[in-house]
């Protein structure tokens, strides 16, 4: 039987690799004890020198060879080491793996000394001079270093399952077929004929994670509307695949039994009444494959899968036979201070944010394959994934290209069991055409996975289209023009699918501490693009650039080595633009309401309040001023008509008060109100012509004076020197107040901590919890310009990643809490800033 042993604890690290450290007789006194995942250098938040992490560093691990491993095969796997790793066992070089975004394994059985200590060592080269993707030219993101993902060994029989590929095919309303491909190692094809397989299919309980306890559930009927017979793609499952190669087979309850037919065995299983997988209902099944010889269990592997069809057509994307608009975001895999090196909990958190906080249904893993923990979570909670092989604009020489083709092979074989993946990226992001090269990358992807489409991200129109989908970075929107270009203007083949893979980003960088007008325009640009993409019926969907700000090279960013392109900051605190996406969520699950303005006129040039928007998924928004009802805005008032829930312009803070309080006739009151509100929005010098004509009419026909207007403005709009004004915005859903926002000048500031989880598990490696910090007023509004220092104090069996004193930026910041090896118990983190009440977070380390 297969035994998996994690080897993340007890590593020794040196910034300089020495060949002598690969053998037994090496002085380890100057090596640092580390745990995986590990970044080779802890970095500053900003103003990073990218040369700091570029080095050839060394890792060393003591592995005791158990005598019980006699006659067994021992395989070691590293899930990610950036970016060229050389593996040694007891001083002997085993393999070299290039490009640090996929896993690599080696069988080391014959290199181990059983009953003795063995030395596992790696040299890891993170220099960007390597002749391997993504290197060769400039790169718009940091690439970091170290063994930044987890590692493990597996002990199994000499004859074993080396690969399992499971793919539901020909998914229809009453029945589906499951293709299972088994690859065996350790024996010749003739010897393998004495082995049998057993395949079981169990449905997982709702909400189960990758490591949770599974249980079989009753099968359910597939709703007839989910996958109409006519929508099933005819080309996805050739009839010849239904032919079984087994010499004998039978079904026992939920098991399929048959003979291994050689190194590779393929089996098609008919499945009835399965529940389909989708972002709305991410139903998963566990496929267990067991290998027997003479009724003795030899090996076993379990793979999760979901039944779904994902088809790109010329008129859009179809999921389970229904047209489905993709609304996604681009994600890097980096974090402050530690680069790529974060454990499972942080990968899960990012997926949860995409789904639950940003209300998105898709993610692109730009610009490389990312953690299986992240993809596992996408499978579990229902996020469509577009994943691509590593690269950024540059295509290298023939050796470079050969490595890139190998990267495609590794990406597809290692990630193809993830149900969430719907599209392979087989073109270097934003690279020029190279037909010979890209014919090879497409061919490899289709050979290894004939059931998924391929795409290739471009930044220019009418490119040679070799893939199934023309994926294009549409940066055409500049604020005043349409949100996106039509498909026909960009693609070179109207008969193939079209997808927007990036938009906005560098076109309008936005810092969390930018002025309110800038932050609002950033949000509106995102709204305009997704609204335009939704309107274009033959665009499959769009991915916004990008989920969060990220560290970058000196050639990019704002001089601080940060690309401020995200809809969140680096700690995953939301900018205003995040509310555009959050508000697209299902109001039956959560009603959201974000008001774009602080309502402080001093924030704006000349005291002109400008535009105020409500981002909400409610039926309507009621506006109150000093507890007096002003106006109710309904969802139909939005200018973003093609979104499920468009932002609403709140343009009236006077209501009927000029009639009720001042006694003006309705017609005159409306003219005065229009003048006052336009003055607040545009200022005196930029008033629309119609407003100026109304002002003249008020002065001539109604004998009003300039001073009359100034006094009314001060009383009903500007409130200069008057009493404190309180605005309340109530989100109404199904007749009830479902969310409320109150805006009034802040009287006190408090620190607020948002923690992703408080029960930390220190076991196979360390655990990390994210604390997102914000400064808020008494009404829970963000104090954007509170940028004071915060002291972070940890007590108990945890430590802080990064500095213990930070300054908030845009009223927000963050930190990470990391467990300590072998230490359990209660822990506390305190956030301290001047005379503000201390905010504390309690943790249990188990």
Roughly what fraction of the amino acids lie in strands? 25-35%
Low-confidence stretches: 208-253
Class per helix and strand makeup: alpha+beta
DSSP E strands, number:
47
Give the spatial strand order of the biggest sheet: 28-27-26-25-24-23-22-29
Distance between the termini: 29 Å
Shape: globular
Word description of this protein:
- This protein is an alpha+beta fold.
- It has 12 helices and 47 strands.
- The strands form 11 sheets. The protein has an 8-stranded parallel β-sheet with strand order 28-27-26-25-24-23-22-29, covered by helices on one side.
- A hairpin with a 5-residue loop joins β11 (160-169) and β12.
- α2 (344-357) runs parallel beside α3, α4 (398-415) runs parallel beside α5 and α7 packs parallel to α8.
- The longest helix is centred in the middle third of the chain and has 20 residues, at 516-535.
- It starts with a strand and ends with a strand.
List keywords for this structure.
single chain; 846 residues; alpha+beta; 8-stranded parallel sheet; 6-stranded antiparallel sheet; 12 helices; 16% helix; 32% strand; globular
Q: Could you give the topology of this structure?
A:
Layout: E1 3-6, E2 11-14, E3 32-34, E4 56-64, E5 73-78, E6 84-89, E7 92-98, E8 104-107, E9 117-125, E10 151-156, E11 160-169, E12 175-185, H1 189-192, E13 195-203, E14 249-252, E15 255-259, E16 264-272, E17 285-293, E18 296-305, E19 310-313, E20 316-319, E21 322-323, E22 326-330, H2 344-357, E23 362-365, H3 372-381, E24 384-388, H4 398-415, E25 421-425, H5 435-448, E26 453-458, E27 469-473, H6 487-490, E28 497-502, H7 516-535, E29 541-544, E30 550-551, E31 562-563, H8 576-582, E32 593-595, E33 613-616, E34 620-625, E35 628-634, E36 648-649, H9 657-660, H10 666-682, H11 689-700, H12 706-718, E37 727-733, E38 736-743, E39 750-755, E40 759-760, E41 768-776, E42 789-795, E43 798-801, E44 805-807, E45 812-819, E46 825-832, E47 839-845
Parallel strand pairs: 22-23, 22-29, 23-24, 24-25, 25-26, 26-27, 27-28, 40-47
Antiparallel strand pairs: 1-10, 2-3, 2-4, 4-9, 5-8, 5-10, 6-7, 6-9, 11-12, 12-16, 13-15, 13-17, 14-15, 17-18, 19-20, 20-21, 30-31, 32-33, 33-36, 34-35, 34-37, 37-38, 39-41, 41-45, 42-44, 42-46, 43-45, 46-47
Helix pairs in contact: 2-3, 4-5, 7-8, 10-11, 10-12
């Amino acid at each position: 039987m297969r035994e998996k042993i994690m080897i993340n604890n007890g590593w020794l690290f040196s910034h300089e690799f020495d060949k002598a450290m690969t053998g037994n007789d090496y002085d380890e006194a100057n090596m640092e004890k580390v745990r995986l995942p590990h970044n080779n250098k802890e970095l500053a938040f900003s103003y990073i020198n990218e040369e700091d992490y570029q080095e050839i560093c060394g890792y060393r691990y003591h592995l005791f060879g158990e005598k019980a491993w006699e006659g067994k095969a021992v395989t070691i796997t590293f899930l990610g080491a950036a970016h060229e790793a050389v593996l040694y066992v007891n001083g002997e070089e085993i393999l070299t793996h290039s490009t640090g975004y996929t896993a690599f394994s080696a069988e080391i059985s014959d290199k181990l000394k059983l009953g003795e200590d063995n030395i596992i060592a790696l040299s890891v080269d993170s220099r960007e001079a390597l002749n391997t993707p993504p290197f060769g030219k400039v790169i718009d993101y940091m690439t970091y270093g170290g063994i930044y993902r987890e590692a493990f060994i597996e002990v199994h029989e000499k004859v074993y399952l080396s690969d399992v590929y499971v793919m539901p095919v020909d998914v229809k309303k009453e029945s589906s077929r499951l293709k299972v491909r088994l690859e065996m190692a350790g024996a010749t094809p003739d010897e393998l004929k004495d082995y049998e397989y057993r395949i079981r299919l169990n449905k997982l309980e709702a909400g189960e994670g990758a490591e949770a306890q599974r249980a079989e559930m009753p099968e359910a009927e597939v709703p007839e509307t989910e996958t109409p017979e006519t929508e099933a793609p005819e080309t996805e499952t050739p009839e010849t695949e239904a032919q079984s190669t087994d010499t004998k087979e039978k079904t026992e309850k939920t098991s399929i039994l048959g003979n291994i037919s050689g190194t590779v065995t393929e089996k098609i299983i008919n499945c009835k009444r399965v529940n389909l997988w989708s972002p709305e209902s991410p139903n998963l099944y566990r496929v267990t494959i067991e290998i027997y010889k003479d009724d003795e269990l030899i090996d076993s592997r379990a793979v999760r899968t979901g039944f779904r069809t994902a088809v790109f057509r010329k008129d859009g994307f179809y999921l389970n036979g229904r047209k489905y608009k993709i609304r996604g975001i681009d994600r890097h895999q980096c974090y402050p201070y530690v680069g790529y090196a974060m454990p499972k909990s942080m990968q899960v958190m990012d997926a949860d944010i995409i789904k639950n906080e940003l209300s998105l249904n898709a993610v692109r893993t730009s610009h490389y394959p990312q953690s299986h923990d992240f993809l596992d979570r996408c499978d579990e909670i229902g996020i469509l994934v577009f994943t691509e092989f590593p690269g950024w604009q540059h295509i290298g020489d023939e050796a470079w290209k050969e490595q890139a083709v190998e990267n495609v092979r590794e990406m597809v074989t290692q990630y193809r069991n993830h149900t969430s993946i719907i599209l392979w990226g087989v073109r270097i992001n934003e690279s020029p055409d190279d037909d010979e090269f890209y014919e090879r990358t497409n061919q490899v992807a289709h050979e290894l996975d004939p059931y998924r489409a391929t795409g290739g991200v471009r930044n220019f129109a009418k490119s040679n289209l070799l893939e199934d989908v023309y994926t294009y970075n549409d940066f055409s929107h500049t604020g005043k023009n349409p949100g996106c270009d039509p498909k026909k203007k960009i693609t070179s083949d109207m008969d193939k699918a079209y997808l927007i893979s990036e938009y906005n980003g560098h076109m309008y960088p936005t810092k969390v501490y930018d002025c309110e007008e800038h932050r609002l325009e950033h949000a509106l640009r995102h709204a305009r693009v997704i609204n335009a993409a939704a309107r274009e019926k033959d665009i499959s969907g769009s991915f916004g650039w990008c989920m969060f700000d990220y560290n970058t090279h000196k050639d990019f960013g704002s001089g601080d080595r940060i690309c401020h392109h995200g809809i969140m900051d680096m700690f995953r605190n939301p900018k205003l633009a995040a509310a555009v996406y959050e508000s697209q969520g299902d109001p039956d699950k959560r009603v959201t309401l974000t008001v774009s303005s602080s309502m402080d006129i001093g924030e704006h040039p000349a005291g002109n309040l400008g535009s105020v928007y409500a981002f909400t998924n409610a039926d309507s928004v009621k506006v109150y001023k000093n507890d007096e009802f002003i106006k109710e805005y309904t969802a139909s008032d939005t200018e973003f008509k093609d979104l499920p829930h468009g932002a609403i312009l709140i343009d009236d803070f006077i209501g009927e008060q000029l009639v009720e309080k001042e006694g003006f006739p309705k017609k005159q009151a409306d003219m005065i109100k229009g003048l006052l509100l336009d003055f607040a929005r545009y200022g005196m010098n930029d008033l629309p012509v119609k407003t100026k004509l109304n002002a003249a009419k008020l002065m001539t026909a109604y004998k009003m004076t300039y001073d009359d207007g100034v006094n009314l403005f001060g009383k009903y709009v500007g409130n200069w020197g008057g009493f404190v004004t309180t605005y309340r915005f109530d989100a109404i859903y199904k007749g009830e107040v479902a969310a409320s926002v109150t805006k009034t000048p802040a009287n006190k500031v408090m620190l607020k901590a948002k923690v992703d989880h408080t029960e930390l598990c220190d076991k196979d490696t360390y655990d990390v919890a994210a604390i997102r910090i914000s400064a808020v007023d008494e009404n829970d509004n963000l104090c954007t310009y509170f940028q004071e220092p915060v002291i972070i104090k940890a007590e108990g069996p945890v430590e802080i990643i990064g500095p213990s004193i930070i300054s908030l930026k845009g009223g927000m910041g963050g930190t990470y809490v990391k467990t300590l090896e072998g230490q359990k118990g209660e822990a506390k983190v305190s956030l301290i800033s001047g005379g503000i009440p201390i905010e504390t977070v309690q943790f249990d380390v188990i």
